[in-house]
Structures are given as C-alpha cells and as structure tokens.
Amino acid sequence: MTEELAKYILPEGLLKFFTITEVKEIEDPQDQSVAIGIYIEEKNILPAGSKAVEYESKGFLPPKRIQDFPMRGKAVYLYIKRRRWRNKTNKNKVVSNDYSFIAKGVKLTQELSDFLKSTGRDPGRYD
Q: Which residues are CB-contacts of 87 (< 8 A; sequence separation ≥ 6)?
C-alpha cells in the first residue's frame, strides 16, 4: 500500500507518526473469517517535551491491535508498534507518545467508535 493511498484509508494524521511495514490478509480474531491486517510502526520521533540528548530509542512496546472501518466486506485491524525511549542517565525513566486516534476504553479507532455511537451501536462490545 502506497502512502498516497494509505492517507485516504487510514485514520487521519496516522502517517505523520507511523510507517506502514506490511499489509496482508489475516484470520479475523473474532470469527476466523478473512480480514485485512495493516502493520504500522512508529517513526523515530521523540515525544514532545523530551530532549534528544537525554533519551535514546529502546525498541518498541508490545503491539496493539485496533479495529478500524471494514474494507471490501472484510474487517480491518491495525497492528500498531509504538516506540519507547529510555532516559540515558535514569534507566528506569521511559517515555512514549500518546495518540488520540485510539478511542479511550475500546480497541477501535476514534473515527470508528464515533461512527458506531452515531448508529446506536455500543463500541464497548468490541473490547
């Protein structure tokens, strides 16, 4: 999937902070049908307010699976790998970015959650 096409399919602003690493058909974790898995990885951009001289990128947090709008009759899941940065002098201090495109309390994008709410469906049932 090209970034030009992805900007129309993925949640708005996502490609500013993430890179697509893979798109493939997967087994839907809810009903074992065929779904689309889009794997994305956070770019190496330090969280706001943190100084590059104080922190170093130390890999990724465990990936999160987030459900997005279906495409072509198939469920779509974003597998998001977020970076973590460790303080160079205090190894116990770790920072990471926080993103608002994930709806609070559910495993859906904010856009899909808002859409389901407007139709009277409960987005909480997708946890």
A: 54, 55, 93, 94, 95
